[in-house]
Amino acid sequence: MEIFMAMSPEEREITIHNLLEAVGDDPKARAEMxxxxxxxxxxxxxxxxxxxxxxxKHNAKKQLDGTSWEFFVENQDAILEATIAGGQLxxxxxxxxxxxxxxxxxxxxxxxxxVVQNQEL
Length: 121
Fold this sequence. Notes:
Blueprint: H1 2-6, H2 9-23, H3 27-64, H4 69-74, H5 76-85, H6 91-99, H7 101-120
């Protein structure tokens, strides 16, 4: 299942098509295959939720490498909006960070520290 989840959406679609062709017209095998396929969106959502924070840190590093803490603070609203627009936060975190500036500033500091730490490596 891990290999399957590591595939791109296009690769998964091709693989699903090939698997369904491989089971042919056998109703029992086809039903089992469709049950497995029906569980994929939930697994994908679970995997995506676990990767949200890592993606946010990665994108922040990529876009803001070498930037001072003061720049992060001065642009915290724009950074939050870009992070939200990039789909990198859950709905819960989005609501929290939009209504609680202290929580967002704390998260922003974690991201900035990670950027600085990775610069030193």
